[in-house]
Amino acid sequence: MFHRESGVFKTSYAADMALYPLPIAKWAVAAFAGLFIVIVPLTFGEYYVSILDLILIAVVGALGLNILVGYTGQISIGHGAFMSVGAYTAANLVVHLDAPFWVTIPAGGLMAALIGAVVGIPSLRIKGIYLAIATLAAQLIIEWTINHVPAISGGVQASIQVPRPTFFGTQLKSQTQLYLFLMGFAVLAIVGTSNLVRSRIGRAFIAVRDQDIAAEIIGISTFRYKLLAFAISSFYAGVTGVLYTYYLGIANYEQFQITVSIDYLAMIIIGGLGSILGSIFGAAFVTLLPIVTRWFLESFGGLIFSQADLANIIPNLRLILFGGLIIFFLVVEPEGLNRLWRNIRNYFRVWPFSY
Amino acid sequence: MKSLSRIMMAATTAAAAGLGFSGAGGAEQKEVMIGAQCDHTGPTQIVGVVICPAQQDYMSLINSKGGIEGYKINYNELDNEYKVPPAVEEYERQKGEGAVSMMIYGTPQAQALNQKLQEDKIPGTSPGFGISASADGGRFPFLFPVAATYWSQSAAAVQFIKDKLGGSLKGKKIAYVYYDNPAGHEPLPILEDLQKTEGFELRSFAVPPPGVEMGAQVLDITQRYHPDFVIDHLFGRSPSVAIKEYKRAGFPLSKVIGLVWASAEADIQAAGGWQVAEGYHTLQFAGAGDDYPIRQEIKAMYKAQGKEPPKTMDDTVIYNRGILNAAIHVEAIRNAIKANGGQKPTGTDVKNGFEQIHDFTLDGLVPPLKITPTDHEGGGWVQIFQVHDGKLVKETDWFRGYPDVVAAAVKKAE
Description:
Chain A has helices at residues 13-17, 23-43, 46-71, 79-97, 101-119, 128-148, 150-153, 175-197, 200-210, 212-217, 222-248, 258-271, 276-300, 307-332, 337-350, and strands at residues 159-161, 166-167, 170-171, 250-252. With 355 residues, chain A is mainly α. In chain A, the strands form 2 sheets. Chain A has a two-stranded antiparallel ribbon with strand order 1-4. In chain A, helix 3 runs parallel beside helix 8 and helix 4 packs parallel to helix 6. The two termini of chain A are 21 Å apart. The two termini of chain B are 43 Å apart. At the A-B interface, helix 3, helix 13 and helix 14 of A face helix 1, helix 2, helix 3 and helix 4 of B.
């Protein structure tokens, strides 16, 4: 936020480790929480809440991928598939055992974590583009497996209908109810990640990212922490998959194909690698950009094109605009939206007394 | 957010007025909204670039004739790039704007939206794709396949092959070439059932998406398996690749039948033209060709505006499917408005309107559908056309293949 930090003297380790060093930061976070948890669902229309729902789901996935890519410096093009692992685990639990969401969500996450850790094994020997190819293989193998094993996919259609989650006896149906449900998990993911990255594990991740040989020399087991990063990151992906399943009412692997993995990578690269706020910005940006560009074209496209052609032109123009804006933002600030936000904040922090 | 959208609306209106559009001036126009998803981009754009304009053309035609029972159609079309989350977002938007019926686009999208349609009580159509079991109106009350599902299509293909091979399939060999995704797998249970009852030999050949390289499969079929007939269930670019490869392998295309998404003029042209595809059988759920009065009406509408009819109309197979989808929505809304005495229909009214559709054939473009509360497929009618002398020639009239077998499968899917 825009508050100033002069006169802050930390006298204990606890104060130094605190998430929010100043009371004003706590108040700001509380205000934001109030805004999004109380005011937004009460005032926004159902359509806008449904967009926020998609963003919330994306936030969880983007945070998970950022733990792996941004904090630990490994790469994964298999996150779409890890989501489908979570989705099908949950769907099978619901269909066969009638499991409630507080069982299926951790179960989906754990299953994805297990598979993610296995997929992460190549990361012990290879890095960068080679690791990307190895995880790409995982994406294809998981897709193929789901497509061809009816015991997992529930039949040739490879899709399993899942009823909406029940919360203390009420089935969550409306977009606003689902919003609050998803918000709970998004908050858990945000708090969980911010605590993770300032813990011993998070510092180990960062050490591995910066130089894994050096990390090993100072006593960090790269074997353990690389696989742990894959497992934790895949856990988030699995939870994302379960949330998608509950939100859409169906588990279907066709919605977790490679384009999804790429979309999530785009989110964290645009948002900012190795930053929590960046993951949130990126998730919102990638989800909103197509909607906003379409809205813009619908509003102003009529100035250039005839109204009759507009329906056929908008979808194509939207893709061009989408790609163009991503290039634009990355050229303006290669370190992502998070850095852009920090620049703005730092400017206003000393405003109007900047030298 | 709300006030922002109001500002944008105002800006839009101002922009439209500035360009000379008269806008929504005059008396309050009675309107009914149809929400459509249709992809000009993404993996299915080869179909979308023809089918979306067809739907738009039919809607403008109806509007130019005064709309449905005095209601103007507000036809809203959005592109989901064949992705599920945008499909959900667009559905919510169209629902919020008051759509009383939805045109779904894509099989995973149909599956994802099915539950929402039920919750919101808005009927949606998935012609020629979607969930085969949704023919059962009892279990899928708001989802209407309206055209032959993959199960009906494959059963009809087997029926056709049986007639072609002299009335018996005992000991014959059929190859089933399919796109290796859920839509491609869907006909398999029906084919396996029929294999048992009809006593033919069935071997299936998977083509991994996107299916632009299938020389190995075709060689396997033509040089090793030597089938009596081949069923192609392919999408996108792959049907044309298949036709080309059969030709190269010297396999007669008169022994190949393509299911509905392997059946368009564009596929034949991409395969190297009509000469190459001579003899190829195509299965259709809407009439193919230019010989339908409704197409002449659309052309006349363009002429009246001083414009040439668009080139997309030349791809008659896909274009006519767009007309079919649009026309069934219009007919359902007409039934709904008639039934409630001219009131603005709700989603449930339109659902009932769909369930009253029968004897609505648009002079042969639409099959003799009979949609009922229990049968949302309307019978599962198809026609077979053969490539002959540079055009698609009708080989059979509307027919259904093994309706009892398909009905049993729909029942068993519960």
